[in-house]
Amino acid sequence: MLKNFFILCSGADKELIQSSSNGEQNKYAGIGATVFFTAVMAFIAGSYALYTVFDNIFTAIGFGLIWGLLIFNLDRFIVSTIKKRDSFLDEFIQATPRIILAIIIAIVISKPLEIKIFEKEINTVLLKEKNAMALNNKKEVANYFQTDLDKNKAQIDSLKSDILKKEKEVNDLYAVYITEAEGTAGTKKLGKGPVYKEKRDKHDTALKDLALLKTTNQAKITELETKAKTLQADLDKKVAETQPIIEGFDGLMARINALDKLPWLPSFFIMLLFLAIETSPIIAKLLSPKGEYDFKQEDNELALKNALAQNKYQSELHRKTDSEIYDKVYSNIKEDNELYNYKKQKATELLKLQADGFVEKQKKSI
Question: Where are the alpha helices (DSSP H) in the chain?
Answer without folding.
Answer: 2-10, 14-18, 22-54, 57-81, 88-117, 119-182, 194-247, 252-260, 264-287, 292-334, 337-365
